[in-house]
Design goal:
Elements (H helix, E strand, L loop, with lengths): L1 H26 L7 H20 L8 H21 L8
Helix pairs in contact: 1-3, 2-3
Length: 91
Amino acid sequence: MSSVFEAIMLLCFAASWPFSILKAIRTKVVAGKSPAFMGIIEAGYVAGILFKLTAPGPTDPTVWLYVLNLVIVGTDLALYFRYRHNVPPAA
């Protein structure tokens, strides 16, 4: 039963990142994003994946939600490094 709540948590996290990704793609500006923060999140997802893969018994299917989140945050992190030198337009 706890996997259901874990899956809901991971889906909620996954739902928020596409907005950040779309904004970066649309504006080509990543001011205010923190690569350190995203790296820490990535490390947490890697730890979750390793836990799921090394736990005794059959592999819990929520491991795929960790992978999904890892890819989504990794995409946002890649966009950060792609656009980090772009300056936001003056208001």
